[in-house]
Request: fold
Amino acid sequence: MSHTLQDKRPSAAAPQGALSGARMPRWAPLAIAVGSAALGSLIGLGAGLDSKIQWALLAALVFVAATYLITAKVEGSRQGKNQVATSLVWVCFLLAVIPLLSLAWTTISKGAGVVDGYFLSHSMSGLLDTDEGGGVYHALLGTIEQVAIAAVIATPIGLLTAVYLVEYGTGKLSRAVTFFVDVMTGIPSIVAGLFILSTWNLMLGFGVSGFAGALALSILMMPVVVRSTEEMLKLVPNELREASLALGVPQWRTILKVVLPTAIGGITTGVMLAIARITGETAPVLLLVFGTKLINPNPFEGAQSSLPLYVFEQYSVGTDASHARAWGAALVLIAFVMILNLVARGIARWKAPKTGR
Amino acid sequence: MDTTTAPPTDAPPPPPVFDKGAPKAKKQLGDRIFLGLSRGSGITLLVIMAAIAAFLTYRAMLAISKDETNFLTTFEWNPQGEPVSFGIAVLAFGTVVSSIIAMVIAVPIAIGIALFISHFAPRRLAAPIAYLVDLLAAVPSIIYGLWGAVFLVPYLDGLNKWLDEYFAWTYIFDKTNEGVARNLFTVGILLAIMILPIITNVIREVFLQSPKMIEEAALALGATRWEVIRMAVIPFGRSGIISASMLGLGRALGETMAVAVVLSPSFLLSFHILDAGGGTFAQNIAAKFNEANGFGRDALIASGLVLFIITLLVNGAARAIIARRKEYSGANA
Reply:
């Protein structure tokens, strides 16, 4: 654990004059860290605690206490508090990093052995859940179709709403839309699923299909697209709009030919991030698409599968073979989402609108 | 709505008349169509929100009217039983308790990480870490669930035993049944890990906007870094922290798959949070859906409606706080 204390000069420990107080040497935090790690382990060993986590917790407590006491003694209590706060912030960071690294490592190490060409190109057709083998082809196909349909529905509505909010909206309507878009961002995915269930399936009488799932996903996607597009349109310099309008170009052409092209990079990024978000949604798919072992290329008729749903199903089966498939599918899913994310952010950086600086 | 769009906004009545004649009429037609389309999209969104509320309420009413016990206080879920009996007491309790645990863990850590990124991290590290946090917010919840069930649950067994041994006197940490750690406590920890990136992102944005002049002035007066944060950064970001927490809370309340995978559900309401069992709204819907017939689905929709209302209130409040803060800081910027 290293400390960065940019406001602290690495001057000698002894006070030089009236204007500078005593300073800890730069290696002090490291020394305290090593010392408290040793002490924590010793106490842990002595008390017969078998969990390494408890050792680490003890060491962390010793570290915080020792840092405070030593710094307070040498530099004064205000500096001591500062050191404790610094340590705590670092501890927070490490606490958060550990589970996240563990998550990434578990997924990659357990999934990497499963994913291969066969896994990606075969479905579960003709296999019992307890059998070995099988693959995710049907789930991958389902996910891509459902997400594509959702994107086709949600993107135009989201874009036009954002255009309305930024370019036209001033009155009560736009304030209401802004508020409800924000609220809509927080709708639990399962509620979106229940809504489509109660209208499309229960009221209109359609059966399960990939399209029903896509409808629910599009509800989840719309507010995300609106928000990100709105942010991007606001970045377009007003001078461009004014120049275009001053040349006599009608407003709708100004928007189509000047405003949107200027912001297109950011808008693309926003749409792709929204797609990445809905790709991982399981709950609405569980309610509306239902899941199947077979390849069903038609999203408008009959049950389909999807990657997140497949992960859930295979986990629920509970055998070794199915758990392996679950991890394999999880790796495929996470790779899919991460690639979308990275490409989207790449586009954002590449096409960032010039803000006039 | 804000100043960036001042001049071209007044579309419906045409802006100061330039000339009267054919070209203007043409302009207005194109403009009118485009305005109609974009306004229509905005209205579509409002209609969808209204429709969600309306349809869920309608189906929920169908279900609740046949419920022979009190929908709010019943401890069982038996919509297809002989006396039709189902209630949300256990679900509401589980949802609230797991979300509270998640908030208690996640909010302080998120503040810490946000401070780390905005004020403590070496500048070279800050941007990649912020980027990483962004990516983590995109990890699908089912993967968190899978990881939680396979990795976190066995791992937390030890912690559960330890808490039970030393903190059983607090009542809530008293573990009364033998079972693996598929309990509300584990769910809370998993939810905390899941909402951490979202909360961190929002808080970090707020902290980065805190007025540099004040921070530098405080440093120049000899304040330590912690004093600067306590006196300048956190007071400035307080409403941001509150609204970020509520956004995270909204996420935690509605989380479905991670909970469904990790929890071993039961319809017992127990304050012993280490006991396996309990349930949440979303988890119950996912778990019961496949075995539910037409009426059972209506009952699940009724519980979904309650979840919808709760998240609506939480998110609405969070957004209202953010909006107020925007005006406030806009006046000062």
Notes: Residues 137-350 of chain A form a domain with the MetI-like fold fold (CATH 1.10.3720.10). Chain A has two domains: 28-112, 137-350. The CA atoms of residues 265 and 347 of chain A lie 6 Å apart.
